Amino acid sequence: MQPWAKKINRALSLRKSTSLEWCIAETIRDEDREFLKQADAIAILLDERNCRLLVKFQACGSNLVVRFGVVSLLRNAGKTAPQIAAAMHQAVRNLCTRRAPHPSMNCLKSHMPETGQVDETLVAHIMQHIIFYVSDGDAATHLAGHMLHQKSERSALVDKMPNLRVVIRDRAHSSRHLNEHSFAADPVLHMLLHTAVLRPHSIARQLKDSQPLRAIFVAETQNQLNRDDLIATVTDMSFAAQRFDSLQKPLGRIVLNLEALLSYCYIVVRERGQTSEEGQGCMALLQALTEENVILLGMMADAADECMILTRFLDKDTFDVGAMRVELVQFQSRINDLFMQKACLKCGYTQVALDFLKQPRVLYKFRARSCGRWVHRRELMSTMF
Questions:
Q1: Nearest to 301 by CA among 342, 261, 353
Q2: Which of 113, 120, 238, 348 could hold 302 in an S-S bridge, CB 3.0 to 4.6 Å?
Q3: What is the pLDDT of residues 259-318, one digit of tens each?
Q4: pLDDT tens column, 184-216
Q5: Mean pLDDT (whole number) for 80-104
Q6: Where are the beta strands (DSSP E) in the chain?
Q7: pTM for the complete prediction?
Q8: Secondary structure of the chain: what % helix, strand, coil (to 5)?
Q9: Measured between alpha carbons, how far is 214 from 149 in angstroms, rounded to an integer?
């Protein structure tokens, strides 16, 4: 088959799969619209990330049946509070628009006269019954909720929600930013986090997506020295980008299984090659694991662990609001003791990283930088950390 024919077949296959997804999504949206027509109380929940604004809903009818769903996903909705407030109205109109075709789809107007039409009655009903507004930790998103309140005078240019009563900040969601923003502020920590966890072909994603690679890692964990307590439990890095605890477990398991990960990286590079996607991810980790960076990984795992304690407290549905200040003070005190007073050197993941560096190991290196020099392919060397 000619290259141009392959490209055409690939484009047609992509359009077909997108159309099938559109059909399933429209079926779900029909059910959401029918439920929202009878809803007595609606809460909207916002989450903004990478210029994408996800608006979800939770609605309840007179029979106390609750339904969750997605209102709309808006791209480039804006970063300011007035723009986000205006985007709420656009999101509701998107939900109430029937059969809007996706960009790769042929026009359906000849077969479906209601294509692209907005149900104005449903729009008015939803806007009348929105009572709760729940924002993530972003300040602009939270301010937009106050602007939408009927009695707010912050912006006269924003259309109000007539029955909006409660504007809530998702505190558990906000506490996630302690990890993400802190690590992103330092270039070395940002590099380590992406190399080990977030990059498309990082170790955490390899073990999550590939059963053969996971089997290699499990076999290597069984050969770890003095790690018998982890053999029956650790099979991957437990990484899931959609979860709020997606950093704590991968960082901790990487530190606890550094010896198995080094063996895993060597096997993957040897069997699949340095130029493969998996080999490139392993080589990036091997080059990043200097003595200093191993200690930093341990400290990052300790910090993520402390942030998770705070997030778990704030994630409870019925936690004492008065105890939140006490919990925040204790969190700040623990962070200060761990890193300013250097208590992390005697406990936790940092101590595990230091114990790992005390033992000499013999490793094959595939042109990976180690101890200040380049080592030739398949050269046997003893690296004393």
A1: 353
A2: 348
A3: 888 888 888 988 888 888 888 888 888 888 888 999 999 999 999 999 888 888 887 766
A4: 889 999 999 989 888 888 888 888 888 888 888
A5: 85
A6: 39-49, 52-61, 66-75, 97-98, 117-118, 130-135, 166-169, 361-365, 369-370, 373-374, 379-383
A7: 0.68
A8: 55, 15, 30
A9: 51
Q: What is the dihedral of CA 44, 49, 50, 54, to 10 degrees?
A: -20
Give CA–CA dist 226/255, Å, rounded: 14
CATH 3.30.420-classified regions of the chain: 3-169
Residue 231 Cα distances to 3, 68, 205, 234, angstroms: 48, 39, 20, 6
Four-residue CA torsion sign, 273, 274, 277, 282: positive
The highest-level CATH class for domain 3-169 is alpha beta
DSSP conformational letter for 149: B
- The three-state secondary structure class of 154 is coil
**By the 8 A CB rule, do 334 and 306 touch?**
yes
Cβ-proximal residues to 157 (8 Å cutoff; 6+ apart), any chain: 82
290 membership: H or E segment, kind and range: none
